[in-house]
Each structure stands twice: as structure tokens, then as C-alpha cells.
Amino acid sequence: MHDTAVETRRERLRRSTTAEIKEIALRLLVEGGPSALTLRAVARQIGMAPNALYGYFASRDDLVVALRDDQYAALAQAARDGRDVAAAQGVDGRLRAWAHAVREWALENPTGWHLIFDGPTGGHRSAPCPTPPDGDFDMCMPLLEFAEATLPHSQLIAASTAYRWSDFDDALTERVRAALPDLPPEGIALGLRIWARLHGLVAFELDGRLRAPSTVAAAIYDDEITYLLRSAAADEMDNPPEDRSEER
Amino acid sequence: MHDTAVETRRERLRRSTTAEIKEIALRLLVEGGPSALTLRAVARQIGMAPNALYGYFASRDDLVVALRDDQYAALAQAARDGRDVAAAQGVDGRLRAWAHAVREWALENPTGWHLIFDGPTGGHRSAPCPTPPDGDFDMCMPLLEFAEATLPHSQLIAASTAYRWSDFDDALTERVRAALPDLPPEGIALGLRIWARLHGLVAFELDGRLRAPSTVAAAIYDDEITYLLRSAAADEMDNPPEDRSEER
């Protein structure tokens, strides 16, 4: 009993120190960019000997990976929350809510977005969504549900295409086939294409390539989603484009 | 006369040394990534004192910018060449050729692509195409010509959208309005969206997010283009999707 209590207290302390290290590291990144994040700078700010820090993170890369995983989890949660808010709206409404949640999270957490997609140690390396740290592909499910619902009567896939399951990441296809047994492999290709469109616009906006005011970037993003939903011509076309006059 | 000849010879020597420095710098980047490119490493490989190198490039950033501008020029040239090959095919054929030329250049020059779009000193920062070093927007003209030709009868723009010229980069709109007087501001928004789709897929493929064999990445890219052309429903629909059976 006594040993367990001591262990628990140590673990709690370790967890709290780890959280503090990550909080400081993220702030250094946000305020100064990749070059500002060094283990030495973290140690100085936390008032810890640099050597003690190695007991928590063996290298700068390990720390960056931990930050990236946290940011991925936050993005995935935001995307799920967006989908859940629109749970009653059918696949179209859920896709729209998901896409807006992704963009809004990115605008609020640009450093997190860069960490996930082009972080100093390289982004995640799988498709159609970024591979989450724990191999859970929940984040991209709204995309794939949309693909499943719209594929049979959609203009979105060219008829000449023949994809196979082996064309895609094994871990992803295994997860997708369990969750969406009616989705053909074309659905993954479609999910990838949709994700590339939305990801591309968010990345342009974050990188300042959409030099226009952010209301215009929002309008362009919304146009893309609206167009996507129209093209899919799903029965669940239950979300007509909003009137954006008050946004302009 | 004599002075001019001497000057010319000096200039020629300087040009040749500059070219050699850039060639070595690009090779260091290709082989070792951003951290391998240092002025010290370039000086060592070229057999020059580090101080002498500063007479050519005042800093590593200056050298990177010079490399990036070269790579941009090469990408723009490849895109133009692609368009020119399909000059007789109408706007659809030209867009398709342009898009394939962009992807092929990226696959052959991944370091160049990263330099242009997410290089160590940041990518170019304008839209809808990356801003070329000399402010010439020729690279994106096939996109905008396509937008101009298809906009009147296209499903690609949601009717509720009202864009203004002031929504976009001044240098770009000035250039576009001179070259394509009939294009409304919606055309720029559409160009951006198309570029985001294509750029997003190429970036996914280069970053290894499309883990599938490259023939599948090619098929997905081609699906997106085919779909784009169909949605645009242009009169010039003169390029039916090729039979890809021999590629698979």
C-alpha cells in the first residue's frame, strides 16, 4: 500500500513535469519557430539542469514527436466534435461540420498544424488522413462515411477507375473494412482526393498564400465544400449553402 | 574595349562560380536535407575559403532563395512546356497537360518542390499560384484560362458567391485583368481551388502520404483532373480519360 502510494505520487509528479516541459516547448515553437525549440532553452525556462531533462525526453526529436502526437489528438478531437454537433444532419451535414472544424482548429493552432503535417521531424506518413499516433483512424471516418454514402450515385469517381484494397495502407484498410463494410476501395481513393482539396486550401490559408482577408479564404473553403456536396448529389443534400452576406 | 572584355571575362567567371556554388548547394540539399546545406560545407566542396564564398552569397538564406528561384523557374518552364505540347487541344487538354507536367516535375525534383513550397526560408506567399521571383504569373495562366472558359457554364462556382478584385493580391489581379479581360474575380477564386486540389495531391504523394505504388497515386491524380474537367462541362471536353489498364 505504502509503496503504491509513493509510486503514484512519483508518477503524478512525473506527469506534471512532462506536461510542463511540453507546454514550454510548444510556447517556444509558437513564439520563435522551430529554431527556438532547443532542450537547453526548455531546461532554462523550467529551471532544470539540461541533464535532468534527458530523463524526460531523450532528444529534441522525441520531444517534438510528443508535441505532434498531442496536437494530432487535439485536431482529431476537434474534428470529432464538429461531426458530433452535426450528428443529426446526415452525411452531408457531418462532412461540412467536420471540414469547418478542421479549418477552425488549424487557424487557432497553426503551429500544431505545421507540427502534424510538416513538422521538423516530418509529418505523419499515411493516407487518406494523417495516421494518428495510436493507429486509430477515427478522425477520417466522416470523410469515408461520406464517400460510402455518395459513391453509388456520385459523379465524383471516374467510371474507368479500378482500385484494389492492396493499393492502400494495410492498417487503414483493415480499420475501414471493419467500420464500413460496404465501402469499395474506390471510396478510399475518393476520401484521399477530398482530403487533399480541403487540406490544400487550409494549408494555403495558413501559409499566407491566400493573401486575401480571412473572410474570403473562408468563402473559398465554403465554396469548395458546397461544390463537393452538390457534385456528390447525395440524397442527404440537407445543407444548402448558407447566406454569407453578413460575413463579408 | 579592353576594359569591357576584362569585365566580361570577370562576369563570366563570376557567373560560372555562382552556378557551381548553386549546383553544389542543391546537391547537398538533395543528398542530406536542409541541415546538410551550410556555407561551410559548400566552401569545402568547392575548395574555396569560407570568407570568399560571402562575396557570392551574403548568407545561407540568400543562397537558399537563389536556389528556390531557380527551381521555381524550372517548374514554371515545365508547366509552360506541358501546356504548349497540348496547345492545339483546347482549354481542357491544356489544363490536363499542365497538371501532369506539374506533377511529373515534382516527382523528378522533390527537393525543388519543397524549396518552392515549404523551403527553409518559407515558401512563396501569394496566390493562386506561387508568386514567381520576377512577378510573372505565366505559370498559372493555364489554370486561369480554364477558369475563364468554363466559368459561364460551370458547376464549379456556387451561385451565392460574390468575390471582388480587392479580395486578391494586387500584382496578380493586375496581371490577370490585362491578360484575361473577361475573367471575373470568381475566376481567381476558382483557380485557387483547382490549384489547392492538384497541389494537395502532389504534396501528399511526395510526402509519402499516398503510401500506394506511384501508379495508384497517378490514377488518383488523373481521376481528380478528369472529374474536374467533367464538372466544368466545358464545350472543349476533348480529352476523354485514357484507358489506364496498361499502367496497372
Automatic annotation (TrEMBL), chains A, B:
DNA-binding feature ranges: 38-57
HTH tetR-type domain mapped to chain residues: 15-75
Pfam families membership: TetR_C_33 (PF13305), TetR_N (PF00440)
Record's keyword terms, sorted: DNA-binding, Transcription, Transcription regulation
GO molecular function, one term: transcription cis-regulatory region binding
Name assigned to this protein: AcrR family transcriptional regulator
InterPro entries linked to this entry: Homeodomain-like_sf, HTH-type_TetR-like_transc_reg, HTH_TetR, MT1864/Rv1816-like_C, Tet_transcr_reg_TetR-rel_C_sf
Keyword flag DNA-binding: yes
